[in-house]
Amino acid sequence: MSITVYGIKNCNSMKKTFDFLQACGVAYEFFDYKKQVVPQETFEEWVSVFGLDKVINQQGTTYRKLDDTAKALLASADVGAIYQLVAENQSIIKRPIIAGTHLEKDVALIGYVTQAMQHTFS
To answer: What does the pLDDT look like over 18-56, one tens digit per residue?
Structure first.
């Protein structure tokens, strides 16, 4: 298995991630939220690993544009219903999410954090 980077190409955090991985010579697949929908199983795994509060980007424009009903749903524990909202608004997912295996080690990173990237890939 290899590394998959999930996100949107035109995002500053994503550009930093791509540059970092390229500089380290790390091969990866890119999963573009604009072209594909994250499977529910994958979303639920992210929530399990990182927590819903980390997976949902509450600082972004997509979140701020949601109505109060949608924001209340995101505060609930109904991951299935939350997934439906996320599937229709994938820009609400924190970027990047990096998952897979690198040098026979499991990788699960969320957000661009320089120290975590260096520890994992350098």
So the answer is: 999 999 999 999 999 999 999 999 999 999 999 999 999
Spot the catalytic one: 4, 7, 8, 11: 11
pLDDT confidence of residue 1: 52
Task: Considering only residues 28 and 78, tell me which one the structure prediction assigns the higher pLDDT.
Answer: 28
pLDDT at 4 over 90: yes
Q: Which long-range contacts (CB under 8 A, 24 or more apart) does 99-106 make?
A: 99/3, 99/4, 99/6, 99/46, 100/1, 100/2, 100/3, 100/4, 100/28, 101/1, 101/2, 101/3, 102/2, 102/3, 102/26
Cα distance between residue 43 and residue 64, in whole Å = 21
- Can 24 be counted among the known catalytic residues? no
Q: How many CB atoms lie within 10 A of CB 91?
A: 17
Peptide bond into 96 cis (omega under 30): yes
Angle among Cα 117, 11, 119 to the nearest 5 degrees reads 0
